[in-house]
Amino acid sequence: MEENKKIYINGRECNYKDERNLLEVIRKNGINLPTFCYHSELSVYGACRLCIVDIENKGIVSSCSIKPEPEMRVKTHTTELRGIRKISMELLLANHSKECTSCGKSLNCKLQDLASSLGVGDVRFKKREKLIPLDTSSQALVRDPNKCILCGDCVRACDEIQGIGAIDFMNRGSDVQVVPAFDKNLAEVECVDCGQCARVCPTGAIVPKSDIHDVWKELEDPNKVVVAQIAPAVRVAIGELFGMKPGTILTGQIVAALKLMNFDKVFDTSFAADLTVIEEANEFLRRNESKDSLPLFTSCCPGWVKYAEQYYPELLGNLSSCRSPQQMFGSLAKDLLPGQLKINKKDIVVVSIMPCTAKKVEAKRDEFEKNGIPEVDYVITTQELAAMIKEAGLDMNNLAPESLDLPMGFKTGAGVIFGTTGGVSEAVLRYAYEKISGKQLDNPDFKAVRGIEGLREVEVNVGETKLKVAIVHGLANAGKIAEMVKKGEADYSMIEVMACPGGCVGGAGQPVTFDDNTRKERAKGLYECDKMLQLHKAQENPYVKEVYNKHLGEPGGHKAHDLLHTTYRNRKRIFESGFEVLSGTNSQKLEISVCVGTGCYVKGSQNLLHKLIRYIDEQGLQEMVNVKATFCMENCDKGPSVTVGDNLIYACNFEKAVSEINEKLTVLKVD
Amino acid sequence: MITAIEKKMDTARKFERVCAILEDYNYDPGKLIPILQAVQEEYRYLPEPVLTFIATSLGLSPAKVYGVATFYAHFALKPKGKYVIKVCDGTACHVKDSMPIVKAIQKKLRITENENTTGDMLFTLETVSCLGACGLAPVVVINETVHSLMNPAKIDKVIDKIYKEEAGNEKVAC
Q1: CA-based diameter of chain B, in Å?
Q2: Which residue would you say has higher pLDDT here, A597 or A418?
Q3: In whole angstroms, what is the distance from residue B24 CA to residue B2 CA?
Q4: pLDDT, averaged across chain A
Q5: A41 reaches B (C-beta below 8 A)
Q6: What domains are defined for chain B?
Q7: Which among A14, A194, A356, A504 is annotated as catalytic?
Q8: Class assignment of domain A579-670?
């Protein structure tokens, strides 16, 4: 029966199978109906009204929110439909700040594109009266509400793909805006800087922050040695901005371009990824032997690290202590290069070229700064690099490829596939297999870990040892698996987490695309890269071996630990300081704070607060105390946290709190 | 008479009430709107930290809770005065000159459209679209009391009366 399902689109018979909605059937049949709010990976919203169609006996409906039915007769471009689409566009444009020539999204803007393809000429409606100030608080992203068309794509991406919901709609009617909670700035809320909101934004309302200006300045400074590191995912995507197909490998051309723009040395983040493989695999093998802190979560993705710090503080011990490849490169470069190049450490400028907006924030973390010198000075995205190349007047299509500098430009395929989901797992397996079995791995490919499913699990048998690996991308999936680990329902050895769908190839710093297939093509490019390289296992990288021999000592050893590992901390996601529940009037009074943030709340802090208030009431201590409910003291793993005076009590209970209160009050009275 | 200590415990009790409300609704995120309604009954508005607390307790993001709270006109994010004056500006009241009443109240209470609560937290002025009492137009409702066939002079007297009552209350309290 399946194959008999047919509908008529503009009078032509069309077959359909299991498409989720009418829009997908129409698109499959070669008619690209315009949309703003439809993304196959997000829920159906039906807000932009551009995909409207005229269905016989049903009238005009949005095709994204209706299922195809047998014998349906659909028209897609009647005069009435075209008129409605044009009016909708006109209304959107009226509210949009149309500074296209100076907009970061220009030429990649869906609004611009659709306005032109729908043939919208004059906009007859009045402009928005008041301009809303830009939100430049985040180190990763810039929000310009004046360019927002309220399609809600960013809201759903943050909520559905990442499970965070840092932004949502505020108000109603003509006052609607997309904002973080309480209309705060992005830097003041739980945003993890992944930028998936910017990736799906059809206009320039949320864009990655640009650091190009500072990089140009450094390049001009004759006293500085500017060193670049190129992340794997960049090389297979940048071509898209120069008219090439996604997946085109342009490592050599990027090197050539960077050298022409005055970069002194160009290295490869994949070299550092090879190091990561060795450090992380050794860490994993150690833990696997002692069955301690398993499963091991990967830690290369800064979006995931911040997410874990905010939402799963109790699992931080399971995170690999390895720095991300970007930061391994930074610390190693600042440690090795001064000697090698005979220059001052402070004159070295490390510029990372990343597919990622969260990397900008990662580079600024306190842990990655030594004596006031950051290990990575600037992070620019693939988009920004392309903009620099264009500004420098270079023709990417005609640049002769150049080779990366040694030693940190030499990598194996293991370090290259880091840029796609499943890559880190495969690279680690290539190492762990040989280490555990003592045998050589002839075919380095672990194809079972490859794929695009958001949550995959793979079992690999290495002799007697069974390794069960889970691979997730999208933080909502990471959240699901973290919950399983918390409940003890996950028997994985290792869990690879990437915040962005598809892994780094789908990062928010990559060229703008609204085609789901692009990520797959980029990943294909990376596997292609792996195939073309001479070596595929991190342990075979001769320069990595040399760095260990001459510089780092043993993997996981003291020096390696100092340069290649890091620590994590509980991080609050709500910056609200809390609220007074009771405020005494005595001149000297005792300050009591009870944390009611999620971590402490699940451990019963709300109940504890109840009891304390009752106790204070019964004992008539109201005038001598200030009681506050706070949101997070960043000690979530040891909650409930209560402070009495200057004393912070972990794992607090009623008895502990009361005895501390009485003790402190006696002192107060004596004073 | 309310003692100072009892007044103090009032904030604590309000918070306790929020916890009880959440419990009553079984911490069900699907019951966000009735929860917000009940909490607003306690505080007369929805304080930001309380909204954050509700979000955390229900496992929702604060942005989502804020979105719901700002969507409905019923929810107030700023503290409201003891007396909420609602002037009907529906069609019938509007043609019967409800706007001059609004202007008169604003002038008397020295408030504006944006700053619509008096500094002493006694009055908040709102306009509503229709109270369904068009026969009595123009209508003004103060808390639960309906004042019909209003005009600027009449509303002036109504407000003065409230001021007098309040002054009396204070004397009693002292």
Answers
A1: 51
A2: A418
A3: 28
A4: 93
A5: no
A6: 4-71 (1.10.10), 83-173 (3.40.30.10)
A7: A504
A8: alpha beta
